[in-house]
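Moderator note: this is an archived Q&A kept for reference. The question asked for a predicted structure of one protein chain; the sequence and the answer are reproduced below.
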Amino acid sequence: MYLKVESPHCPWPRVASKLTETEDGISEEDISLIETEEREKLIVQLQQQVQLSSLLNQINNEIRRTLDLEEVLNSACRLLGEALQCSRTSILVKESEAEESLITRGEYNRGDSFAQLGMKVPIADNAHLQTLISEDKPLAVAKFADFPGLGEETREITKTLGIKSMLAVATRYQGRVNGVIGLHQCDREREWTEWEKQLIEGVASQLAIAINQAKLYAETRRQAEYESLLRLLSNQIRSTLDIKTILQTAVREVRQLLNTDRVVIYQFKDKWEGEIVVEDIVIPWPSIFGDSITDNCFSQEYAQHYLEGRVRAIDDIEKAGLDRCHVDFLTALQVKSNLIVPIVISRNESSSLEVEKEENEEKRRSNIGKPSPSPSSPSSSPSPTRLWGLMIAQECQSIRHWQPQETEFLRQLGEQMAIAIQQGELYAQVQEAAIKSQAQAEHLQATLQELRSTQQQLIQSEKMTSLGQMVAGVAHEINNANNFIHANLFHAQEYAKTLIVAIDTCTEACPEAADTISKIAEDLELDYIEEDFPKLLKSMQEGSDRIRSIVTTLRNFSRLDESEFKPANLNEGIESSLAMLQNRLKSGIEIQKEYGILPLVECHAAQINQVFFHLIQNALDAILTSGKPGKITIRTESKDELVTISIRDSGVGIPIEIQNQIFDPFFTTKPVGKGTGLGLSICYQAIVKDHGGTIRCYSKVGEGTEFVVQLPLAVC
């Protein structure tokens, strides 16, 4: 007897059961082995469908959650890898239709295999990828190393990644391949099941949509970034004329946006030689910044094309039809792809005149009257524009297919750079002209100041010379009159002695006249005269000596007889200056002299005496201004072929903010009419410029000032 048993809660097919009745009347179910296996298969299929649905749901959730392609692909790789327990799951993306390689944008790795993320895998050398792209179904390979048609580069990649088995499928959107999903088994060879193929095929259809959406989003965002960068540079051009900052910003942002290996700006010099003026690179590619580069294969035809605004995209330097020497030149720079945009600027009037002048000079030297049919250097073209340089994006790791939007973006950027450079050059010319004008104005001002200073110094010097001449003349006349007095004092003393002796002799010789003489002596006070007259003559002698001393001091100060450099005693010069200022040495001002033993110094004595005069006079003024008693300390010493004179006062001091101005002509802190501002300037002129010495000032407000003069023993 057979019964049909149905399961109301399970969609499995109904399975008939054969019931056998025992002898005691109890039935026993006898299920065949075939029926059990079918049921287990159905259970596994159901579980697989649930797992596939769950996996697809999770991937769909990731796609809806974010538009970040890397995040979606990495999550899909992780879910696939964990579900199928493989060593590595990678998703390669084809960046564009023309691209001849795939780049790994997503990866799951258990940690015991080589990382593939970011690796570029060429299509031309990989028969496995070519098969995947041509067939619209998964491709399972148990022994991947034995797959036919793999090139040397692909085999090297396989060895590096350690792939033993692979299950892969191409992702297609609207019939076009936009990526490849690969499951790698690296620890053993693996036979891939049909369900695993179905699973990866189901995931591929979802990821194809995700990759396409992410590409659309990336293109939209990239276009927005292009426009944003153009706006940024436009704003920078309007806000600053710092051309270096603008160019550096441009190459940095371009390299990041294009995700390329090197971006440079090359500026042309003479005869198409040039220099890399700005650069942004990715390690480990070498820097060529600042290098002077000459491309001997850069023809004048290229220059004309670039001058006309041509943008050149070179996807593969080996297949672009370039001259062999040009290919070798780029290979030496490790360049495989190039995107070149010219920077063409307008000629301004001044540069055009300079170019014309250079051309005329060149014609004159070479005696060539005919102009060159094409430009021989960036600046020799008769065109109103000039090829300033090139902006170059370079791919060094592999060849690259430059997209039209990338080319257009770089072309627009080149135009912005041309505007920035044009404005920068004009600004530099204006600034240079302004600097020259400012320099000329400052030179004229300095000249006028120097003339004024020289005039005033000449007037002051003439005054001092006149004063010296007057002093010398007065001293000469006084000395002549004094010589009469000085010379006759000796005779007066002798005559007085003779008269005294004569009176005493008369008294002794004529005793009868003694009373009369005595009465006369008493009336005339001859005894007092005899006692006081020698003292009178002695005081006259001292006065005459004092006059002679003063005359000598005046002559020493003026030194009109010594207009050339001669050895002089500086201690004597200080004394003569003090003597000239004797009338100002009032009570309450102490002069402390600490003279050292000085050798004779070769100098212009009159100038040095004027220096001492001015310094001591300023010290007296500072003490009198303080309104308190003070002291002037004068110290001299000789050491190491130098003579040092220090004049220090206890006056009001000089504020630190004006100490660097005190030697300037016409600078004075005294009231109008009290000072000319030339005293210290004359000191500086005499000491530093005329005698090769130094003069320094040390001062503190409220404590006083010290001037230290150092003079060499001999002027070289």
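Archived answer notes: The chain has five domains: 2-46, 51-221, 242-365+376-402, 438-557, 559-716.
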